[in-house]
Specification:
2 copies of one chain form a homodimer.
Chain A lengths: L4 E7 L1 H4 L7 H11 L3 E8 L3 H10 L5 E5 L10 H8 L4 E3 L1 H18 L3 H11 L1 E3 L3 E3 L7 E4 L4 E5 L3 H11 L5 H6 L5 E7 L4 H10 L8 E7 L2 E8 L4 H15 L3 E3 L5 H8 L5 E5 L5 H7 L8 E7 L2 H8 L3 H7 L4 H15 L3 E7 L5 H15 L9 E6 L1
Parallel strand pairs in A: 1-2, 1-3, 3-8, 13-14, 13-15
Antiparallel strand pairs in A: 4-5, 6-7, 7-8, 9-11, 9-12, 10-11, 15-16
């Protein structure tokens, strides 16, 4: 077992320029960690050969470089070429690979159109691979590559689904399989708290002298939830257990997940054997969308109402008009009536009602608030200008 | 006017490890471009001093380094300290700043609790700044910094809203203001097409010899839409106009946005003066949530129905039970009935009905499909296992 260090290079001017948000870097980093490999950097570069080359050079002392993107048929897709020249090899056409790629592209062409000749030229471009590289079969149209050694470079496509599919193959393929097998293992445990502020957890970690422990501890506040993620080698398991016990002693009352489960998973578990329905105003369907986003949610989500206009609150969710007049649409009373309306109209065991101010950022505020409710499966109302209710 | 090059460093083990997806790097890159500054790399590093230092070193030849994150009160927040030592200066306590930070933290403490002494220690840690640095006032609890020169380092907090607020101040503050003023300008134009495949656009760009033009052209397929983004200096405006005209000649029939507008914005414009309502099965509220996500959407979105269960389709959206029995829940007929039900129940001018298979990835498929419908504001049905309808 040895310390294997890796670097990740994400290519694409569209990623660098903010047109799309990179999902591959963090995903690869987590996959590497699961194989006991620490990624030191994720570098995003545009489709400029010099910038890609300098990123590779920066990572020269690592054991493994994983790249994503730049394997498409367009001229700005130049990862394979740059990697080849950086690794001291040249490109050559793999004719059998060209036929396999063309078969895929031609199927697409028959479906959505396009002229044969230039598309065939694109397939040929994609079938050029570095001499001596191991080819990973396309998950879309682009083949992946394993190139060189010390560092080994794994060249993967940019579309996340293609990359993830190909990764499963890549880790079983030599020489990547051997490199990963030589690494040790790294555990990661995640504790999730709500509500807990960053200054509070900072104070706790200072008191616990967390810095002096053989653990890599990270804290992160996202969507109102505070996460404490700890990475450690197996021989520090005792140190971690001690640390977790001490954290529990101080903040166990606001700890809602200790097994990595997200709030969505926690809620899904709580809903087992019950049914739920929603009536949303300002969140406009996002709560229903989030609930149904999970596989298997049809077992407990019956449906929901999006009652943006006050008329819809009355007509669809059965909120009494007088209630809106008396308390305003944004009030605990109307939220409760929405929850009740959702429950009744859809015949569910539980109803969620959400009303609030939908301003910039406001929707997310309410969403968080409601999640907290759902956790306790009982109403807990607070905050000005937004209200929610759960009707059990 | 000169060529100003920048690099972006995003810190945080939670970002590197995939616990959160970085929004700051791409956002900063786009802001820089709007100021005529090209970002060559975005580097994501964990909270390890050596890795942060090597990222700074890698960007030494740029004019500007912008960092995000690592300014919090916890011990793993070490950006300011590492930047100071890399820039050849030391840290000192700014007592007045400490009091301003403590005032913010203490307000938080009164609201959510925590002991005074360790939290005060956190505020003191955050008030340590590099000697000679310009302090940017906290947008949350963390101050930002402008440190050194050649490269100038702008040190900003990690939470996106804090970072974005502080950025507005930073660009008006010396010496960053002068540096940005010295840069030229870079235009970016975005054309969006649907449906158009990547091999097709690759073929077109090859035929147009796009590579030989003084334009940085990037193509990107996301959520089924194909984007062609082009960045160029003002003196290449003519070359761009020519390129755009040639693209239009070939793919003008599937060009749906030529002014940077997203499909959401295009739909919002089309809905001016009309009202709309949704009835969703497999997308479970995501369409309503996406429609209402836009400021001002209350002018045209009346509401929606999430009818996940077949019973709900009948009871809430008025879909005849016989129709479901005869054609199945996933059928054009039921989609049309859902659209009609949404329109009638909510008294809207337009109704959208969505039904389909909610498998992994399936929901997104349907979502895209529906967007295409909405664009034409008339039904266009195709694909197996999913159906949608718009009822005008």
């Amino acid at each position: 077992m040895r310390d294997v260090r890796a670097g990740i290079v994400v290519t694409g001017t569209e990623v660098l320029g903010g047109l799309i948000r990179d999902a591959n870097g963090p995903w690869l980093s987590e996959q590497l960690r699961a194989h006991g490999v620490t990624a030191s950097h994720i570098i995003v570069v545009g489709d400029r050969p010099d910038d890609l080359r300098s990123a590779l050079e920066f990572l020269r002392d690592t054991d493994l470089i994983v790249t994503s993107g730049g394997l498409g048929p367009t001229a700005d897709d130049l990862t394979a070429e740059v990697v080849a020249s950086w690794a001291g090899t040249t490109m050559e056409l793999d004719p059998a690979l060209e036929e396999r790629i063309w078969a895929i592209v031609n199927r697409l062409r028959r479906r959505v159109g396009g002229e044969e000749e230039p598309m065939r030229a694109g397939a040929r471009k994609q079938a050029h691979v570095p001499v001596g590289a191991t080819v990973l079969e396309p998950a879309g149209t682009a083949p992946g590559l394993l190139v060189g050694s010390e560092p080994l470079i794994a060249v993967l496509p940019g579309p996340p689904r293609e990359l993830q599919t190909m990764w499963e193959e890549a880790v079983k393929t030599e020489p990547l399989a051997s490199l990963l097998a030589s690494a040790g293992t790294l555990e990661r445990r995640i504790l999730r708290f709500f509500p807990l502020s960053e200054p509070q957890i900072a104070a706790t970690l200072r008191e616990l002298d967390a810095d002096a422990r053989p653990l890599e501890i990270t804290t992160c506040l996202r969507r109102g939830e505070l996460e404490v993620a700890t990475v450690y080698p197996p021989d520090a398991a005792g140190a971690y257990a001690e640390f977790e016990a001490e954290l529990r002693a101080r903040h166990g009352d606001v700890l809602f997940s200790d097994d990595g489960a997200t709030i969505d998973e926690v809620i899904a578990r709580l809903l087992e054997g019950r049914t739920i329905a929603t009536a949303e105003s300002c969140t406009g369907g996002l709560m229903a969308g989030r609930l149904t986003d999970r596989a298997g949610s049809s077992a407990y989500v019956l449906g929901g109402l999006v009652v943006y206009a006050n008329e819809a609150k009355v007509a669809l969710a059965g909120v009494p008009e007088e209630l809106i007049v008396a308390h305003g649409a944004v009030s605990p009373e109307v939220a409760r009536a929405l929850a009740g309306g959702a429950r009744e109209r859809l015949g569910a065991d539980l109803g969620i009602g959400i009303t609030g101010i939908a301003g910039p950022g406001g929707v997310r505020e309410v969403e968080r608030h409601e999640e907290a409710h759902a956790r306790g499966v009982r109403p807990r109302l607070r905050g000005a200008g937004r209200s929610g209710g759960v009707r059990p």
